[in-house]
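Predicting holo structure, flavin-adenine dinucleotide bound.
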Amino acid sequence: FLFELKGKIDDCFCTIDTVDQFNNAKIYPRISSIILKDYFRFYKVNLKKSCPFWKDGSRCDMRYCQVESCNEELVPPGLKIRQKQHHENENMSLKYTESGNEFDCDEVEHQDLGYLNTTISISTLEDFVLWQAYDDAQDLYCTLPDEDGEAQYVDLKLNPERYTGYGGKYAHRIWLIIYKENCFRPENIFEVYVRSSKLTGMCLEKRAFYRAISGLHSSINIHLSAQYLLSDKNNNLLSDCSTGRWGPNIEELNHKFAPEFTNGEGPQWIRNLYFLYLLELRALVKASVYLEQEEYFTGNEKEDTETRKAINNFLLIVKSFPHQFNESSMFKENLDGKSLKEEFRKHFRNISMIMDCVGCDKCKLWGKLQTQGLGTAFKILFSEKLDKLLSSNINRNVSLKKKSFQLKRSEIVALFNGFARLSTSIYELENFRNMMQ
Ligand code: FAD
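Done. Tokens:
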């Protein structure tokens, strides 16, 4: 079935072949080296947040589910200093909002009402900050950085995304809730998982949402098939991680995607991965003016200069791709567009909260990172503030960062690492094809 994956990618302007060639030759080598840079390697995350939806013993005790702890001394001091400064700045502006932390997921709904009920004229600094916070909340797809006391730096290089053994009813429950309750589904269907043929009656925004989630699911399952635990050194499956041998498992890939095992749907799920790839690629292009100005500060001058150079080179290549995803018509139907966008945001916010219910820490880490990456892509693609900035005649040399659109470090880290996962999945598919040949 991998050899039959051809033709146009749904809702996009290019073919699977075009993406394969572009990604495997130009993007994959570059993004793989960028994410090894210190700025992108350390991700701050709270893996101890309790699941807001249920409480039962669904934790994975397998060795492979654990996250290797990170020696805090290895974390570049520059990252920690920036974090501290950021907190101080945030606390300053929070004094004005008086409504709690505008970046807190659980507070957004309550806050929205608070802001909407306040009729103010933007005449004082206090009012301005209040409205600015309200605008920021509109941009949030719950891509909230975990920056509380329990959040810890994780060295992503020490914890590659791969087979962990997590599965069965607990993993199914997570996917089930994501698709059943938090994805837009065509009306009048009773299947739990959406069949692709039913998507045609849905609007672009809802199709895009479903395809993005399904593409993420595909990417995770391709990774665990490509980095499967083949055996330990005694050839005993599933034993000590340190002696494990990891590599591609064609049977697992078949089981996950071949039409005969997936009711004919598997190939479409892989096409959704290509859709998501193009969507995130477009977000990188759209935010490139911003990303080109980022300092990528870790405190190590040589490393930071190299990182900026690598990013600028990468963004040049990304911008050269001629068949960009076109988000410009999305959420434009006046009132309907506004409420649809709100619904879209709420669904995505729920999905990011569901990640705290994943019972395998390694899967949770990558699940949280990739949803934050996707949320950041949505924020970039659908931010009215960024649209205004890009369309206004601002002097491009004037720092965009001083303007109202902002990305936090963890959003940038998640965006690049999340995109790198998709790029690697497409590259791994090529490896599987070569093996099969
Ligand atoms: P599942 O992948 O659990 O799928 C459940 C059902 O969803 C399928 O029966 C099918 O009807 C439907 N479905 C499957 N794929 C798609 C798709 N792409 N689009 C739409 N519908 C689909 N395991 C690891 O080994 N390593 C990891 O790092 C890892 N990370 C995970 C992260 C998260 C957030 C979650 C929820 C799970 C993770 N898992 C991971 C588990 C993995 O995704 C599978 O759940 C597990 O391997 C069991 O797979 P399965 O074949 O039973 O079907």
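The pocket of flavin-adenine dinucleotide is lined by residues 161, 163-164, 166-167, 171-172, 174-175, 193, 214, 217-218, 220-221, 224, 256, 269, 358, 362-363, 366-367 (CB under 6 Å).
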